[in-house]
Write a structure and sequence with these properties.
Length: about 350
């Protein structure tokens, strides 16, 4: 901030529009002067809550500024009242009430807007023979017998091996506390989901009482500006729902190298970039399964693609090595991992490729 002129630089994301404004100006007025879309239907009285923003903290080399929530004036009585009555999310401010005190990078969250832009990327329809790593198998096992003291899980593994030929079937540890209850709930008939990728042993990853016909997978393209997701029926390979959103990481930098520079200058903020993209993916998953009346636990497999920087940030890997020669990747081969290790709200036994 220039002390004599009492001016501050403000950058609005995800639009990337920026300007210099006098200290004391409301953020909503600054946004409107730049043509940034921020909703407000209450005339700036702090009632509607549609003009919410959040401040990105840290040093931004490309903008040559340091942004902090302290660069906004303290909440007004109207803003405090709204936060109390309507549960304003942590870190959010009402731009019609917040006055500029210093340099800022401001994120305009899409979830606060009722007339927000919709991002869509259509899925190409091609005939591909389904060859899913996940297969559904329904079996009925014998009830416990004092004369044959075999554990419920052991008898289940044997029944699945008899039907599928999968000897030495592994059981995902997440299922161990639930198997007995599920077997009894299904009157000893259950549907098992078995995951087997190339070169990996078959693993029991999910179980439902009774018979189940359909499970799903998701395909997600994490781009630097947008994220596209598609829900697929793993039985027939059909894409049944698609959705997209802006990549919220844009508030940390408009392009890939800006985000690498941001992490380099603010290493403690790497988890923020990772959390932002994972939350966006979880939001898309909720929309996809809602479109077809399914549940998040019906999703057992996920495939993610992205450029190396997006790949590293999604996995929580520091991308700084990608910012200069020899541009070393932490990992270049594909990996199969547990979805639950990445806070993805899918079936607890779901796998991520």
């Amino acid at each position: 901030m220039t002390e004599t002129a009492k001016l501050a630089k403000v950058v609005f994301q995800p639009s990337g529009r920026r300007g210099t404004f006098p200290v004391g100006m409301h953020l909503l007025d600054a946004a409107r002067s730049l043509g940034v879309y921020v909703e407000s239907v209450c005339g700036g009285r702090g009632i509607c809550g549609r003009c919410q923003i959040s401040v990105s903290e840290g040093s931004f080399a490309k903008e040559n500024l340091t942004s902090s929530a302290d660069h906004l004036e303290a909440a007004t009585d109207a803003e405090t009242r709204y936060a109390t009555l309507r549960n304003l999310a942590a870190g959010r401010r009402l731009s019609c009430q917040a006055k500029i005190l210093g340099d800022l990078v401001v994120d305009v969250p899409t979830d606060a807007q009722t007339n927000r832009q919709v991002v869509r990327k259509r899925a190409e329809a091609r005939h591909i023979e389904p060859d899913s790593a996940v297969s559904l198998v329904s079996v009925t096992i014998a009830e416990p017998d004092m004369e044959t003291p075999r554990g419920d899980i052991d008898r289940l593994r044997e029944a699945l091996a008899d039907k599928t030929g999968h000897a030495g079937l592994n059981v995902d540890p997440v299922l161990l506390p639930r198997v007995q209850a599920l077997l009894r709930q299904g009157n000893w008939t259950v549907t098992a989901a078995i995951h087997q990728d190339e070169g990996a042993p078959p693993t029991l990853v999910a179980l439902w009482p009774g018979r189940k016909e359909t499970v799903y997978g998701i395909a997600v393209d994490i781009g630097s500006t947008t994220i596209a997701a598609h829900l697929c029926d793993l039985e027939n390979g059909r894409t049944v729902s698609s959705a997209g959103t802006s990549n919220p990481q844009i508030r940390f930098g408009e392009d890939l190298m800006s985000r690498v520079s941001y992490v380099q200058m603010n290493p403690s903020r790497l988890p923020d970039l990772t959390r932002a993209v994972r939350e966006a993916v979880n939001s898309l998953i909720g929309k996809l399964v809602g479109d077809v009346g399914a549940d998040r636990t019906d999703v057992l497999d996920a495939t993610f693609v992205g450029n190396p920087v997006m790949h590293h940030l999604f996995l929580g890997i520091d991308p700084v090595e990608l910012g200069g020669a020899p541009f070393a990747l932490a990992a270049s081969d594909a990996m199969v991992l547990n979805a639950r290790d990445f806070e993805l709200e899918l079936n607890p036994g779901a796998r991520v490729y």
